Amino acid sequence: MPVPRRSAVAIRHIAFEDLGLLGPILDRAGWDFSYCDAATGDLAAPHIAKADLLIILGGPIGVYDAEDYPFLLREIELLEQRLTRDLPTLGICLGAQLMARALGQAVYPSGAKEIGWSAVSLTEAGESSCLGALDGGAVVLHWHGDTFNLPDGASLLASTTVCKNQAFAYRRQGLGLQFHLEVDPKRLEHWYVGHAVELAAAGISIRNLRAATAQVAVHARGVAEAVFGRWLTEIV
């Protein structure tokens, strides 16, 4: 008999920051996925709480902006419920920051924008984790200005000189990534438009960023396949 497909729900904060490369990887690994838009969707819908995998994607707001964006509080509640039960949970950028907050830690501006393609340094735990494919200088896309304190009981997996807490594992099935392994290089043109004000304020050259993206596009796909493919195998 065929193996039943599992369900994944991705909570999205802005339309173009989607699953990207992760969508096809999920499909090939036997997962059906759907989106819920955080600002307008029903975060209390039963299919979200019951999903085999919850993914919280990135966005241009901060965890500390809950007074203006109260749906963030519901996301934190969802994460608390899943993480305490050790249910498969992936947080990317804002999603990782929300995971840290759900685990009782502060999230705050790091004091520096980290935007562009560069490598991360893996810890010993990171080298033996699904992030092992990043060892040897593999580059990832950074696009954030906030950071967080490492949650109690979490294992630090990766760092950069700008931001120490770049990735962490929580228990067996929680993974928080500050950087963007999921991004599809072909779709970054949407990011350049959607985040034009942020890029200008940070003094980032879109032409240089576009050129750097073109150089690593094929490489980025292979890294996403290796990391997410291994992690999806581990959580089931």
Can you count the beta strands?
10
- Residue stretches low in confidence (pLDDT < 50, at least 5 long) are none
Shape: globular
Structural class: alpha/beta
Strand order of the largest sheet: 2-1-3-4-10-9-8-6
Molecular structure report:
The chain is of the alpha/beta class and 236 residues long. The chain is built from 8 helices and 10 strands. The strands form 2 sheets. It has an 8-stranded mixed sheet, with helices on both faces. A two-stranded antiparallel ribbon has the order 5-7. Strand 9 (167-170) and strand 10 (174-177) form a beta hairpin. The chain starts with 5 loop residues before the first strand and ends with a helix. 40% of the residues are buried.
Write the layout of secondary structure elements.
Elements lengths: L5 E7 L9 H7 L2 E7 L8 H4 L3 E4 L14 H14 L4 E4 L1 H9 L4 E13 L1 E2 L1 H4 L11 E10 L5 E6 L7 E4 L3 E4 L10 H7 L1 H6 L4 H30 L1
How would you summarize what this structure contains?
With 236 residues, this protein is α/β, with parallel strands linked by helices. It is built from eight helices and ten strands.
